[in-house]
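[scheduler] slot 2 assigned
[scheduler] job type: sequence-to-structure, two independent chains
[scheduler] chain ordering preserved from manifest
[runner] begin chain α
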Amino acid sequence: MKTSNSTWKKWLRGVFAGSLALTVAACSGGGQADSGTGSQSGEQAQPASSGEKQKLVVYTARDKNIFEIVLPKFKEKYPNIEVEPMEMGAQQILERVRAEKANPQADFWWGGTQSALSTAAEEGLLEPYKPTFADKIPDLYKDPQDRWYGEMLLPEVIMFNSQALKKEEAPQDWDDLLDPKYKDKIVIRNVLPSGTMRTIYAAMIYRQGPDTPEKGYEWLKKLDANTKEYTQDPTQLYLKLDRQEGVISLWNLQDVLIQSKQNNHPYDFVYPKSGAPILVDGVGIIKGAKNMDVAKKFYEFLFSPEIAAQLAKERYQFPSRTDISKDELPDFMKNLELKPLELDWNVMAAKEKEWMQYWDENIKGKSKK
């Protein structure tokens, strides 16, 4: 999730400002709402001849390459709605929504971690809304009180250079990473600044027993002993893997696919046999939103099977909806079972800071023999 530059923001404002005044077209099928109320509608969208211009303010942590697909299509469907996206990190969104609680300045939160959205929900910052597709999202990936829903899933996997290793030669599960044969073959993106890496490392501690983190620390010491280097950022990680200065890493599956299929890096992945931590990237309507009905329309549109399938094909997003036809998904998704590790995300959120601080101060780079 990246914050775009000012040029992109100006472009977005140019695209979505000055929309012609037309009435809102009713949503067509796919389980969307006809008036943003959550009721089912099987009618085709029919543009009306007149209507007042409406506005939707979106706080988003999604990247511009997602906007390029979603926002123009939404404008095409609802030409009288002016969308004003404001980009920032998920944690920044939480802080801003919290600060604006008495007078909300945004309507919709697009792109938030499960931890950030859950925190916002418990603080009364999100509006409960049960969308038409509610029963198509597993309980694991939504709030039980309908205050947020996961839009896409980010499995964390074992990544490797496919020019240096055959798939069967790569670690097949998390514990395999500790095998001495992989010593100095592993490179890791620096953990503390990375949400992906913090999730993976916290999950490794949790799976050894959250009440006895010492066991998890011992596990991470063994991984540290096999780790050749911690890179400053993803760019350096990719460079090290390309040069085969390291041939194995841990990373999120979507980025592995983007780097290999779009950017031609020699990467492949192993989905760990015991399961993977699966991050949820979700959405919610901000409590007290000034444009509640419009926010609900965007909610339904964003989760529509058509948009979910297109983002899967073009941006390698794993949809949270379980009813997307396999025929509409790219080949690599059709037979891949996203088996989750059994994790208590509330415990993970509560303990992550403590665990990662201990790792940074007592384990990182100190286990070489």
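[runner] end chain α
[runner] begin chain β
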Amino acid sequence: MSPRDFSVVVCVYTEERWEDILEAVASVRAQSLPARETLLVVDHNPALLRRLAGEYAQRPEVRVLANAGPRGLSAGRNTGIAAARGAIVAFLDDDAVAEPDWLRHFDKGYDDPEVMAVGGRTLPSWASGRRPLWFPEEFDWVVGCTYLGLPRGTVRVRNVLGGNASFRRTAFDAAGGFATGIGRDGDKRPLGGEETELCIRLSRALPHAVLLIDDRAVIRHKVPRVRERFGYFRTRTYAEGLSKALVARSVGADKGLESERRYTTRVLPAGVLRGARDFLLGRPGGAGRAGAVLAGVLTAAAGYAVGSVRVRRDGASFDVPAIEQAGAVEEVR
């Protein structure tokens, strides 16, 4: 096995994204550095499982698997990791399309043996054709994309973002898999934070580990119209606060909120001032962007406060699973 074999994991859960799933897989198959395999992990949806197994029956490089754990994105990713045959495991959202050199740029990061994870840059593809005028770039994480305030180039980071990321397979042997009980679970509230918790845990298990973002490793993430609305923005920022309370419980508030403190005290005030300036200059959307930044801060803070109370009262319900040996998950054909 080549030391640079890539297994790409795409977690899927609904037939409503059928065309998106096919496009995501096609973008992996079109990479300038070919992946060894694409693993489609289906989250407790037998009809979708059968349909995908039929679709890729003649494509041995595309393997279709059923989520072997509880419902949710974390368990789906862990299923893919357990089945992966490559030395590097990359993750791509089911509603995203990778640029042709995506894996090649990931690959360059692993020239350094201390690098255990490499993430990339995620750009929004708005269903309406353009960014809503009120939507601040500082909050692009709300729609699963790289936000204004992250450093550019190839830089060390605390954590990579899960929908556009790669890890050495050995990272999971050292730190365990993605924690279940954190992150998305089907149609429930749009939680997150599972990749942050994993990356902090990985850095503790391997103190010399290096985690990078290379913004040349680009994917384009589709943003449906429902997520262009302020109602979703408010729901997602509140859910992020809930998630951060769980992460802080797991890894401690010092590390769990380290990047968030810098973001809140430096990036967001600049965003408010930029929006106010645009308003005073008569530029469209300036007041809306400044207001959205303030609203996002308040709803995230409210979510964190509620989440912290719940964690203290009920305890945290997440679990960190050990990852099985590669190939232990049964493939559907």
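[runner] end chain β
[qc] chain β: The two ends are 24 Å apart (CA to CA).
[scheduler] slot 2 released
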